[in-house]
Specification:
Elements: E1 25-33, E2 42-51, E3 56-63, H1 73-76, H2 80-83, H3 89-100, E4 104-107, H4 110-123, E5 132-135, H5 136-143, H6 152-159, H7 169-190, E6 196-198, E7 205-207, E8 214-216, E9 252-256, H8 263-272, E10 276-278, E11 287-290, H9 298-306, E12 310-311, H10 313-319
Parallel strand pairs: 1-4, 4-5, 9-10, 9-11, 11-12
Antiparallel strand pairs: 1-2, 2-3, 5-6, 7-8
Helix pairs in contact: 5-7, 6-7
Length: 331
């Protein structure tokens, strides 16, 4: 675990007047995990504490032994050997809680970081002292920032923040803290209502007997935004997804059940990649994404009857990284 004085990045002057209803402090958080599923574990965590106007106060970082395979080492770089002597989550839960207490949790795709923390605390028979969270993706949308996509690197580039170690929790938290400050100042200048969401801790957690899947109670991520009509997909439907192959722009993708990533953000990523997000499953649906393929929802039932391919959220997120461009149309 590390706690060092922070070298302050160049800061823009905050607006002279400040909205009275804004939070009194923030905890900018990033966690790296063994995966995206509900039974995945945290392998590292970082917190930058900011004051009411976004100035960095201090930072903290720790590795966490997940007591299982570390997952995508090629992403976070943390091997089983590296994590072997790291503390277990219950051993750092108290210190982490002190850094979150009384602050708004800020993260890029905050529902994911909050969900992972809430599950870890529930496993430790405790609860994180977090009452509200703020997603910097949602804030960027509210500010109308001209970003090409929702990636952290795009937000960082917009504000001239240099990334040094992408997918390292401490550096990702630093980058986000430096990018959040000017966004906060823009919001304050405009008197914008911050997109704050309530955080509801899990009341209990059990690792179920079926495949070790965790079962949660009294918690369901929600979006603060109302549903909205999306623009029509500009590409023709190339047909069904071929298992083992790549996604192709224009494919019709439907989602069913709970997701680790906020549903609206997941759909936004699909649209940004050139896919058509379908609200129901039909014979034209290219792919159904669900973390519970055996459930008896109308979408999974129709997918089985139509022979529509079904994959889970983690596989879909992987496929989104390399979507094949739509073939040119003859005019």
């Amino acid at each position: 675990m590390l706690e060092d004085p922070t070298e302050a990045a160049p800061q823009l002057a905050p607006p002279s007047s400040w909205p009275p209803g804004y939070p009194q402090g923030y905890a900018v958080v990033d966690v790296e995990t063994t995966g995206l599923a509900r039974d995945d574990r945290i392998v590292s965590a970082a917190v930058y504490r900011l004051d009411a106007r976004g100035t960095v106060q201090d930072h903290w970082y720790t590795l966490v032994n997940p007591q299982r395979d570390p997952g995508p080492v090629w992403i976070h770089g943390l091997t089983r050997e590296t994590l072997a002597d790291a503390p277990l989550f219950p051993e750092i839960a108290g210190e982490l809680a002190e850094r979150l207490d009384g602050r708004v949790l800020v993260a890029h795709n905050a529902v994911f970081d909050w969900s992972m923390l809430a599950r870890e605390y529930a496993r430790a028979k405790s609860a994180a002292p977090v009452r509200q969270r703020l997603c910097t993706i949602a804030l960027s949308k509210e500010l109308g920032l001209p970003l090409p996509n929702h990636k952290l690197e795009s937000l960082a580039a917009h504000y001239g923040v240099v990334q040094e170690r992408a997918h390292h929790a401490l550096d990702d938290a630093r980058v986000l803290a430096e990018a959040f400050r000017p966004s906060l100042h823009l919001a304050a200048t405009a008197g914008l209502r911050l997109p704050l969401l309530a955080c509801k801790p899990l009341t209990e957690w059990s690792d179920g007997p079926s495949g070790g899947i965790g079962h949660q109670r009294s918690y369901r991520p929600t979006s603060w935004r109302p549903s909205r009509k999306r623009p029509a997909c500009p590409y023709p439907n190339p047909g069904r997804y071929e298992p083992g192959g790549a996604l192709v722009q224009g494919m019709r993708v439907a989602f069913s059940g709970d997701t680790s990533v906020d549903r609206e953000l997941l759909e936004d990523r699909a649209v940004d990649a050139g896919l058509h997000v379908a609200t129901s499953v039909s014979r034209l649906t290219s792919l159904l994404v669900t973390n519970d393929p055996e459930s008896a929802t109308s979408k999974t039932t129709k997918a089985r009857s139509f022979g529509t391919p079904v994959i889970d959220e983690a596989a879909f997120m992987q496929l989104l990284q390399d979507v094949t461009p739509a073939p040119p149309t003859n005019r």
